[in-house]
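Exercise 7.
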Amino acid sequence: MNSRERVLAALNHQESDRVPIHDSLWPSTVERWRGEGAPANLSLAEYFGYDMVMFGGDVSPRFPVRTVSEDDECVIETTPYGGLRRNRKDYASVPEWLKFPCDSRKDWERIKERLTPSRDRIDWTGGQPIVGLSHDEREDSLQVRARAEWRVGLEGCKRARAAGKFVCYTAPVGFGHIHQAYVGTERLLVAVATEPEWVIDMYETNADLVIANYEMMVDGGFVFDGVFLACDLGYRSGTFFSPRHFEEQLHPTFGRLFGYFGSRGLPVILHSDGRILEFVPYFIKEGLTCLNPLEVKAGMDLVALKREFGDRLAFMGGIDVRAMAAPDPSVIEEEIKSKIPVAKKGGGYIYHSDHSVPNNVSFQRY
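Solution. The predicted structure, written as tokens, is:
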């Protein structure tokens, strides 16, 4: 079987020749591994045989990005969303947001005018920077982790398909995108409680552009096997907001997105960090195919999820990155032995870490 057949089998709850694999690596992790013997002339995606490849478009308002200041460790820069952030140069952590671009609906209306579809939002030829995601979304969406040579431009898509890879259209959506790129968590949560119409408008405007980018890419020659959407909805202790607020505000947008892609024969994978158990029944109603990454420290138990929802939902992830970093190799061995046999039974599982692999994990241990 090739990668495409393998992933499709898993998403259709069928067993195949092996469990499909994919993962997310921090850039600082890749740098460490290069120093520990990882081949310099081969992408880690190819080295480890990752089965999936991602392509997406720019969903930002495309404000100019410029460096404000920098030192040996950090750079302060404006964002394509109109905000200001501080990044570590080694990208070993998520950025520190110094100023978000949107504090009111009036700010949003000014930004919204710039969120119009155009062909130059798509990287047709390769080499175009991925500016449509905030830094942490770029990293967590798998779009640049362990980047393979084919993962750029239309020709890159054609090469990936020729290699038998499972090719995904990818985009950031919903609460996770809006709070990371535009508003900030606290301000958006206040709006969820007090300004629901504004929140829904932000979700829906983003969804419109996500669909428009997809249609432009398909019309231009891209061919996709599935969709990978990124939307963090929780933290370690629970969801950012109540099931009622989810049902009233984001549930319709997810239903529209998942239904749109599902009607085109494309399975949908949703990435959401945090403890999001309360939302899983909604995901199933919306037509979601697969949930990622199942963050262990947030209580997302792969085995329990498989037993409760495995007949209706596939899973991607759930392997604790803390176990990968443990000094005793038996810790990660037990993690694998206790989870993979259950998760892979009857299909419905794709291997992935439960979060981005950090730089305290050695190349040899991984």
